[in-house]
What we know:
The chain is of the alpha+beta class and 854 residues long.
Amino acid sequence: MKPLTKNLWRNIRDSLGRFIAIVIIIMLGVLLFVGVKATGPALKDSLNTTVKADHLADSQLLATTGVSKAQVKAAESVSGVQAEAVKFKYVIGGRASDVVALYGYQKGTTINRLHLTSGQLPTQANQIVLDTAAKKSGYQLGQTYTFTGGSKLARRTFKISGFADSPAYIEDTSRGSANIGDGTVRYFAYIPASQMKMPVASQLNIRFPALQTRDTFSNRYKDAVATKMKLVKQRVKAQGEKDLRAAVYANIVKTATAKAQAQLAASGTPAAAAADQAIKPQLSTFQQQATVTARKQLSTSLTWQTREDLPGFGDYGGSADRIAAIANVFPVFFFLVAALITFTTVSRMVEEARAQIGTFKALGYGKWAIARNYLAYAALAGLLGGIIGVFAGNLSIPRIVLSLYKNYIPLQQVVSLQWPLIALSLLLALIATLGAAAIVVRNELTEKPAALMRPRAPKSAKCILLERITPLWSRLSFNQKVSYRNLFRYKSRLVMTILGIAGGTALILTGFGIKDSITATGVQQYGDVIHYQAIVRLADGKKPAAARDILAKSKAYRSAGTVSGAVAKLSAKGHSLSDVNLFAPANGNDLEPYVSLRSTASNRKLTLPRHGIVITSKLAKALNVTTGDTLKVATTNGQSKRFTIKGIAKNYVGHFGYLSNPAYQQLAGNSAKPNTLLVRLQPQSSKQNDRLAKQLLNHHAIVGISFTTTAKKTLSNMSGMLDPIVLIFILLSAVLSFVVLYNLNNINVSERIRELSTIKVLGFFDREVTMYISRESIVLTVIGIVFGYLLGNLLTAYILYQAETEAVVFPLTISIVGYLTATLLMLAFTGVVTWLTHRRLQRVDMVEALKSNE
Length: 854
């Protein structure tokens, strides 16, 4: 083995602690960088693989008038389309009178395949397969399941033959809503299609086999589906209109014939032929009537949905996108902190080898041969840490997160190696280690051997700012004065230590901040902005009094505000946004105490203007408008009007527009009646909410009710989904912070070992020697923590901005627990490092350290 090669391994052995520290720092940086960046794609790839295996529909049609076989053929006439009609309806069943999404099972169905978790599919008339989520309600194989009489089934009682998952219901905490029972669907069920008393199917599932290789959350997939569905919708609607027109025409003719027959019979004229003869002049009119009626019925009976409309599907995609957004910021910052400290460590390692480099030069070794020795040291540490971090991060973090997504159906875990990301992370690791070594070695090799073999002259002390504050400086002890002078004497070490501690504090704080801010979204939306607990929709033409009477019977009822509500499309400056909720008080221009409108600019209370509109902040951002701009408001009923924006209100979830009653009358017409109640309730359980919903929906005056607890639960799930990532952030940030502190402290001790040995020789006690150097660490830790607070807030704010969705704003919120945890961890790490330093200084060989380098 060549001398320089032996020297390399000897350097690694003699500085094993530093070598391991470099490896660990690089490993942590790469692990989090690659691991979190790979988690978003892994989440999407896993769901894509799962729904592809179970043939999830790309789109589906819900038709209250039914789906004919001709419509199925019309859909399949479009190239690349697979279509299947299914019997489907919402019914009431089970021990707790649950709302159930009931499907008719047909053997050989290829779209939305059931995945059995236990038991068998319904092969006999009396068998039923329940949603796996129904097990939470205590249902077991072999039990009897009963539907209510109003379900209109061939039989009411079934035997549970199995439990299954469906790709149409990927999240077991949400099954959608219905207009029966309490309005909340609890689970789905399948019975033989022959047992459903339905003459035709009510749902049409559409699938595009050629698009199944695309990411279901990508714009490329969505655009392709939209393009194909445009033609599918046209043909299905045209065929549906044709079928319905024929049925309506036949019914009109039948009714007219019967009427004519009755009239002729009363006059004594022979009925059949004469009746036909009597209605022939009207057949053209009948066709026109049938066409108008068919179009009107069809326009209100067809509801198209995509995968994004399925329960839990959009939330899952949003969660993956938020993790991807966080991965663009947090791991990058984490890696930068790691790389910065590594750069410093490697630089110090080479600078400490000045005498060795001078010796090699004096012995006649070339610059490249000498440089290769230290470059190999740095490259080995960088590659070792990078490779361990790459595979540990890519293969572990995504799997941990996937395994913790317990609210979703079992996913086929797909975690592929992100090769471009791996290459980038290894390149960055080598820049942090090899790059640092190359820069410093190059500088050192420019000096002559004699200069290199002599130690650098120590930096001269300068008067510091603290000395100019005489009353304070005069009260400091000698040791304290020395420590504070040394702080500013070694400015590079001061900057690096503060940056390291500030970075660690900021990372831990950001981990807490992400979770706290997402949680705060629901708290502020349903605490500071919205004060009602339920929205009750009134039937057309019904007065609020009837609904109030039912509500008043509930002990939880506090009050109800009458408003006019509508869903509208808002447009301005070439931008538009649909599904905006419009609210206007039935009287006056104030929505208190149900909604608090506060200006985003001044936080002052906003009063609804007589001729303008107040919109929420996210809506204003989406439309690129501000106060004073004009926008167009178009309701789903066809009314439209332009309004001037009179205010922009704080809001965190959803898009809202608020009008005074006079302004709403300008939009909807003077005949528009209040159609909604905003209801304030005392806190009550989910079961109590369900009971109240059933009482309301059983009344003909009410067509729907929704509780804010549902939205709160969605936000809570959103926060819960990020818990694994946040926990990983906090743990790895804590480990990195400790390693950084330990490493910087080691560098400090190594650089000043002669100085520390000198004061030991002068008679300082071990504790005094430790405090001589640790006092500096403590001061820098405190300064670093304070800077970390600021940096953590900035980093959290930027990540939240990146993670915002189209309709959700995350207010910057970091709880006191986050600040306390970050602070206490930093102080604890400083304490541990101080203790380790104390033990090391006790074992210092003063004679060896003070030997002349010459």
